[in-house]
From TrEMBL:
Residues 196-275 form the Alcohol dehydrogenase-like C-terminal domain. Its EC number is 1.1.1.-. PROSITE patterns: ADH_ZINC. Belongs to the zinc-containing alcohol dehydrogenase family. This is Zinc-dependent alcohol dehydrogenase. PANTHER family: DEHYDROGENASE, ZINC-CONTAINING, PUTATIVE (AFU_ORTHOLOGUE AFUA_2G02810)-RELATED, ZINC-TYPE ALCOHOL DEHYDROGENASE-LIKE. Gene3D superfamilies: Medium-chain alcohol dehydrogenases, catalytic domain (3.90.180.10), NAD(P)-binding Rossmann-like Domain (3.40.50.720). Its cofactor is Zn(2+). It comes from Floridaenema flaviceps BLCC-F50. InterPro entries: ADH-like_C (IPR013149), ADH-like_N (IPR013154), ADH_Zn_CS (IPR002328), GroES-like_sf (IPR011032), NAD(P)-bd_dom_sf (IPR036291). The lineage of its organism: Bacteria, Bacillati, Cyanobacteriota, Cyanophyceae, Oscillatoriophycideae.
Length: 389
C-alpha cells in the first residue's frame, strides 16, 4: 500500500509499504477513504517530536471502511463507515472508566519512555512517534486500529467524509478546549491561533454560550475565516499589540477566558519570540511559548486559561507570578475524543455546524509532500489539507 512516511525534518515521502494485518482479536483493518494533515503533524515535520524513526507512517486524522475484523470486535461489521479517534484507548482501565480517554493506561506499549520524561504515560497515539506507542498512522491506504471494539465510531448514512472526518481530532479538540474555559453567560473568550483547531474552538465557544469571541492571529485569510465563519471579532497581532487591544475591547478587565490554540511553535513580534526561536534552534528550549505568555498576562483576574495547542517538553520564561497573583485556573491536555463523538455528531446532524468549512485543499495521497509544504508555510491560503488515498 501507499503511505506517507517520515524520513527526517522537512522530509516526508510517499512510499510502498506492507499492508497492515490483524495482530490481536481486538484489531480492525480500515480502508482509508479520507485523511488529513494536522497542525500537530507539523511539529513532527519540523523535527521537534523526539523518538521518530525513518519510515514511520504519519497521520492521526483518518476514517474509512472496515475491511477486516478481529474475533473480539462486535460493535462494527465489515463494510461499515467509521471514524477513528486519534487517541488509542482500551476502554477498561482506571482512566477510560472515568472518561479520560487520552490518559489510557494500557494503549502505549512504550509507556516507559513517556514515564521517564513525564512521570506517567498518556495513551498511545496514531502516527505520533515511538514515545506515544510507535503506531503506524493513517496517512495511508489502510490502517490497523487496535482496541477497535472501543475506538471505532460508526457513521450513519447521509453524511459525507468531509462532514465527519474532523470528529477524529480537531473538532473535539476545539470543543474540549472551549469546554475547559468553563464558559458562563455573558463571557468574553479570547482565542489565540486561527488555524483549524482555533476555528473549531471559536465555533464551540459560541455553542457553549459565550457572548463574545475575540480571535488573535497574523494570517489574513485565517482571521477572515474566524470573522466570517466563526462570527468572531479579530485582532492581527502584527498590526496592534494584542494585550492592549484586548484591554480596550473589554473595558480594561481582560477576557474571562483565554484559549491557546497555538502551542509549541508560536510566532511573535517581540524580543521574547526571538529569544525562543534562537533557543529552540539549538535545542536549549523545546517549545516557543510566546502565545502562552500572552494568554497568562491578558486573562482577567480570576479567569480561566485553556491550552489546546500542543506543548512537548520544557518551556522557558513563563510568567507564573502573574498566573499565581491573578488567581488563574488552567486546564489542558490531549483530547478525550471518545467522550465527544456522539454529542458532536448530533450537532452535525442537527445542522448546528458543518465542519467541512475549514477545508481549503483536497489532494491525492501522492501529493502529501506538497500538502505539508503549503500547510507549513501557509501558501495558497491554506488552512486545512485533506488527502484522498
Amino acid at each position: 500500500m501507499k503511505a506517507v512516511c517520515w524520513h527526517g525534518a522537512n522530509d516526508v515521502r510517499v512510499e510502498n509499504v506492507p499492508d497492515p494485518k490483524i495482530l490481536n482479536p481486538r484489531d480492525a483493518i480500515i480502508k482509508i477513504t479520507s485523511t488529513a494533515i494536522c497542525g500537530s503533524d507539523l511539529h513532527i515535520y519540523d523535527g521537534f517530536i523526539p523518538t521518530m524513526e525513518k519510515g514511520d507512517i504519519l497521520g492521526h486524522e483518518f476514517m474509512g471502511e472496515v475491511v477486516d475484523l478481529g474475533s473480539a470486535v462486535k460493535n462494527v461489521k465489515i463494510g461499515d463507515r467509521v471514524v477513528v479517534p486519534f487517541t488509542i484507548s482500551c476502554g477498561n482501565c482506571f482512566f477510560c472508566n472515568r472518561d479520560l480517554w487520552s490518559l489510557c493506561d494500557n494503549s502505549n506499549p512504550n509507556a516507559w519512555m513517556a514515564e521517564k520524561m513525564m512521570g506517567h504515560s498518556p495513551s498511545g497515539l496514531f502516527g505520533y512517534s515511538h514515545l506515544f506507542g510507535g503506531y503506524a498512522g493513517g496517512q495511508a491506504e489502510y490502517a490497523r486500529v487496535p482496541f477497535a471494539d472501543v475506538g471505532l465510531f460508526k457513521i450513519p448514512e447521509g453524511l459525507t467524509d468531509e462532514q465527519v472526518l474532523f470528529l477524529t481530532d480537531i473538532f473535539p479538540t476545539g470543543y474540549m478546549a472551549a469546554e475547559n474555559c468553563r464558559i458562563e453567560p455573558g463571557d468574553t473568550v479570547a482565542v489565540w491561533g486561527c488555524g483549524p483547531v482555533g476555528q473549531f474552538a471559536i465555533k464551540s465557544a459560541y455553542l457553549l454560550g459565550a457572548d463574545r469571541v475575540i480571535a488573535i492571529d497574523r494570517i489574513p485569510e485565517r482571521l477572515q475565516m474566524a470573522k466570517e465563519q466563526g462570527k468572531a471579532e479579530i485582532i492581527n497581532y502584527e498590526e496592534v499589540d494584542a494585550g492592549e487591544a484586548l484591554k480596550e475591547m473589554t473595558g480594561g478587565r481582560g477576557p474571562d477566558a483565554c484559549l491557546d490554540a497555538v502551542g509549541m511553535e508560536a510566532h511573535g513580534t517581540g524580543l521574547d519570540a526571538l529569544y525562543d526561536k534562537a533557543k529552540q534552534a539549538v535545542r536549549l528550549e523545546t517549545d516557543r511559548p510566546t502565545a502562552l505568555r500572552q494568554v497568562i498576562v491578558a486573562c482577567r483576574k480570576g479567569g480561566r486559561v485553556s491550552l489546546a495547542g500542543v506543548y512537548g517538553g520544557f518551556l522557558d520564561k513563563i510568567p507564573m507570578g502573574a498566573a499565581f497573583n491573578k488567581g488563574l485556573s488552567f486546564k489542558m491536555g490531549q483530547t478525550h475524543v471518545h467522550r465527544y463523538l456522539k454529542p458532536l455528531l448530533e450537532h452535525i446532524q442537527n445542522g448546528k455546524i458543518d465542519p467541512s468549512f475549514v477545508i481549503t485543499h483536497k489532494m491525492n495521497i501522492e501529493d502529501a509532500p506538497k500538502g505539508y509544504e503549503i500547510f507549513k508555510h501557509k501558501k495558497d491560503n491554506c488552512i486545512k489539507v485533506v488527502l484522498k488515498p
